[in-house]
Structure formats: C-alpha cells, structure tokens
Request: fold
Amino acid sequence: MSSKRAMRQAQKQAYARHRSNITNSRFELKRKFFTKNKEEKKNKN
Reply:
C-alpha cells in the first residue's frame, strides 16, 4: 500500500515539475523576445 502511494506521489511531483518547466520556458521565451523588441526600438530612435 505504501509503495503504491509513493509511486502515485512521485508521478504527481514529476507531472507538476513538467508543467512548471513548460510555463517557465514559455515565460522565458516571451521575456527574451520582449527585451529584443525593446532594444530594436531603442536602436531605431
């Protein structure tokens, strides 16, 4: 019983880590793109 519970908990943690990695990487990409646009606008002015 306890090993079943441990497996279920490990799966939940792995899935949570997976989801946070997706959202973090998406946010990082957006931020890089955003800063790149800002730099281009500064260079134009």
In short: The longest helix spans residues 2-44. The mean pLDDT is 78. The helical segments are 2-44. The chain has one helix and no strands.
